Amino acid sequence: MQQSDELTETVDGVDTEIPSGADDDGGSGRLGGRFSVKALLISLVAVAIGVAGGGAIPVIGSIGSLAGVFAATFILGILAGDARYLETGLAGGIVVGVNFALSLLTSAVLPIGIDFFQQYGLAFGGLGVVLGAGLALVGHYFGRDLRDGLTREI
Predict the structure, then answer these.
(1) Model confidence at 9, in pLDDT bands (50, 70, 90)?
(2) Which of the two residues, 14 and 105, has the higher pLDDT score?
(3) What are the backbone dihedrals phi and psi of residue 109, each rounded to the nearest 5 degrees, phi first?
(4) Measured in Å, how far apart are the chain's first and last C-alpha atoms?
(5) Helix ranges, the chain (H)
(6) How far apart are CA 39 and CA 46, in angstroms?
(7) How far, in Å, CA of 34 to CA of 53, rounded?
(8) Which is nearest to 132 in space by CA: 76, 11, 48, 61?
(9) For 52-91, b where at least 16 C-beta lie within 10 A, e where not — what string?
(10) Residue 106 and residue 146: Cα distance in Å, rounded?
């Protein structure tokens, strides 16, 4: 009898409540609430604005657009309440990859530009995806770190 009392005590201490699906962000499936379409759209818009703003600087256009990715995701990291690394990295990769691929189209008017685009367009876009995702993740990380440092009790 003593063992059954111990078993009852340990079972009583176990939390058997199943969390409701209304709390997460539509999180059924494999990612289980870790991915938010709303956060992805916000990140896409912010990164696109950063790329356009940074690319508008006349002398350093392409480097400025990469700095714009970092700045936009840094600001997102400061303002966001949750860590949204997946959405921010995807947004940075998508926007910068498309930007790199489209930048090749400006030189496609020349016969050598079309040949270059056919041979290296996919690789150039892939480089943009990697750079954009990397810069977006680093910017988001530093923005969240600054937010944590400013809001932490001393």
Answers:
(1) low
(2) 105
(3) -70, -30
(4) 53
(5) 2-12, 37-55, 61-79, 85-105, 111-151
(6) 10
(7) 30
(8) 48
(9) eebbeeeeeeeebbbbbbbbbbbbbbeebeeebbbbbbbb
(10) 38
Rounded Cα distance between 61 and 142, Å, is 24
38 Cβ contact list (under 8 Å, min separation 6): 25
Cα–Cα distance, 78 to 16 (Å, whole number): 36
How far is Cα 79 from Cα 74, in angstroms, rounded to an integer? 9
Confidence of residue 107 (pLDDT cuts 50, 70, 90): low
Residue 51's closest CA among 91, 82, 11?
91
**Residue 50 exposed, middle or buried by CB count within 10 Å (0-12, 13-18, 19+):** buried
**Spatial CA neighbour of 134 closest among 84, 66, 82:** 66
For the chain, how long is the longest CA-to-CA vector? Answer: 90
* Average pLDDT over every residue of 111-140: 84
Q: Which two tokens stand for residue 18?
A: 């199943």
Positive or negative: CA dihedral 117, 119, 120, 125: positive
Give the pTM: 0.72
CA 16/CA 62 separation, integer angstroms: 54
